[in-house]
Amino acid sequence: MKVEITDTTENKLYERKEIKADVSFVGPTPKKAEIKTELAGKVGANPELCIIRKIKNEFGKQEVAVLMHSYESAETLKKNEPDFVLVREGLAQKKEKKKKVKKTAAPAKKK
Questions:
Q1: Which 3 state secondary structure label does DSSP give 37?
Q2: What CA–CA distance (Å, rounded) separates 38 from 33?
Q3: CA distance linking residue 25 with residue 62, whole number of Å
Q4: Range of the domain at 6
Q5: pLDDT tens column, 68-85
Q6: 6: closest CA among 68, 51, 53?
Q7: Predicted TM-score (pTM) of this structure
Q8: What total number of domains does the chain contain?
Q9: Residue 58 maps to a domain
Q10: Beta-carbon contacts of residue 102 (< 8 Å; ≥ 6 apart)
């Protein structure tokens, strides 16, 4: 797997780095965890504080475009990333929805 960083942006508002990269590979598309560790190692970031936001693969090409967010602390990561991303990465628990109870008609009175 060959990783080439195409763009790095410092987003001071969200306290993160936004990294765009092209990843070349042979065979099936690599797993998200493999791409994360490889790209975090290339940037010099902690893989636990990185979130892969997008992996785009074009049909027939052995190459993907990746967008990764790298944070300095776990607090800023949890504050800025949406809940579904945190659940997907295993950093938060899925919130259970309360089931609505259907009201049934009361039994008829016998006369």
A1: helix
A2: 9
A3: 6
A4: 2-89
A5: 999 999 999 999 988 888
A6: 68
A7: 0.77
A8: 1
A9: yes
A10: none
